[in-house]
Amino acid sequence: MTRRPIRLAVDIGGTFVDAMELDTRTNRVRFRKAATTPARPADGVLNAISALGTDLSEVELFIHGTTLGLNAVLERRGGRTGIITNEGFRDIFLIGRGNVPSDHMYDFQYQRPESLVQRRFTAGVRGRLDYRGRVVEPLDPDSVRAAARTLVVDQQVTSIAICFLHSFLDPSHEREAARLIHEEFPDVSLSLSTDIVREYREYERTSTTVLEAYIRPIFERYVDELESGLAERGFAGRFLIMRSGGGSMTSAVAKTAPTHTVLSGPAGGIVGAAYVASELGRDNVLTFDIGGTSLDACVIERGNPVAAYEAQLEHFPLLIPTYDIRTIGAGGGSIAWLDHGLLKVGPQSAGADPGPVCYGRGGTKPTVTDAAVVLGYMDPERFLAGTMGLRDAEARAAIQEQLAEPLGLTVENAAAGVFDVLLARTVGAVRQITVERGHDPRQFALLAFGGAGPLLAPLLAREMGIGEVIVPFAPSGFSAWGMLSADIVNDFSRTVMATLDDADLAELEQLFKAVEAEAVASLVAQGVPAGEAVLERQFELRYLGQEHSLMVTVGRELDRDAIRAAFDETHRARYGHTMGNPLQILNLRVRGIGRTDRPELQTLPRGDGDPSQALLTHRDAYDFGQHAVVPFAVYDRARLEPGDTFDGPALIDEGTSTTVVPSGQRVTVDDHGYLLVTLEEAA
Asked: Rounded CA gap, 245 and 268, in Å?
């Protein structure tokens, strides 16, 4: 059978859907955008593919990143969910932890958001394991059936989360309960905590299971609808969905584990950034992704993105592998507004509908995109390669009336103030994942992508002393491009809870092998040959008595001294010191990886170093280097060649994104056609 030559990646953002096509025969990449369709998300995906004009019968691999699960929680659109747990513990999820979010620390009127599950949708059943996984009380089948009838018949729940105390040590009670419920109610969706995460902490495990059960019905419908739409258009290849912690999984696996997709869109950009960092020889990189609704930043340290094993949706914890991404509500669609005379930007967003004022779709509140139009950074006639005109007069009027006049400023200064506020919020987010983690941001390169990333990145570099900004091709579709290089991945874990000195290494080795067997079986089920599976081992460790833990990668041979040395080195890098306390092993983890072919970074022929052939015009725009409106040279990125060098103030327009270079900074085009923005004296 002839292999299909096309690979296709689609990423849904808050404002646009990005579609990226890779022809593996020529390594040629094509890119198109379409508006996000919140009411029917699959329509936006299919519209973007139609805009691209891809022949789906030629597509071997379709890989998708979506925030559908995340949005279902934020907008409370999930299925009616019930909880079955041990008798006497039905309130675990409702009580949660007693902590108050840091931004409400001194708010004595703070109230937690409404729970996803009301108390009448929870039920306790007889049966109990102790803390070692031993049966204290056998599971009572009649109690399980009665609980299920109460939830399904009386309360009309469509999805049930099953989570028992200490079941991570022995999943048999959960599996038996699921079997009993399925016999009587085969159409009810069931989520078992031990199928999702085999770790201690009852509330966090329950929360993860509830979120899984809550979003599964809507996620399954979405994937089924998208699969049907693709098949009708001739698609017969593999359908993969990005994971929040990097890598991908088949759509069939994703439907049974939708929580792993909640941050899949940003993850695509991190995967691509790690690949680019490796190819460009940059060990330390900060990713800087600004889309329509949010700003996402992550640290790539020594070539690897910093990972976390607990995420947060609103105040609900999620025990899933994810990248340590700092997200704030600040994007191109973020609304600029006045709070008692103070200018603020976000977190509210105009989204895709109605969108910024300049889109002409009914938006009335000024946004970051409107400010960029007023400052002269965006050509209304060339936006989205000329397929969507912008209404600059309407954007100017909105900023004039709602911001400039109340503040007593000119419209340009008010628009510049929007960028100043956005920049201040951005600096705070980047400091959280660098300075507060023991990193010096000046030792990192800044990789800018997302539609608005290159718009702000050079300003951020000036503000934080970052020496280099890297702007890849088609930065607004970079997350989709990154998905094309994503491996098939699955993560598995077991709780250990023993000190390193006291742990039996032979028992740990056997446990690792058992978990590795699960990882290999998962990869084989997703089409990866067993002999090609790559297995990575890790311990989650902490000094005895500490609360927080760190991850340490271990080799095939378990060596106490090597593990201790690796942990001490990681702790010193993060916190600046080490301790003499014994080490405690919390969890062991195995990541199973099925490698995929990555798109090559092409080396382009060098030009003569003269960028004049790419010069389109000069346009007045606001220069933050001089704090004044001055003429900017406007370049067509498609005509720039490796070796071209020029100084700011300059605008590099590529239709779907604009790189804004203020005075005092220099642009160099590297051998791959990437833009490198540096300080003039550094260059």
From this structure: 9
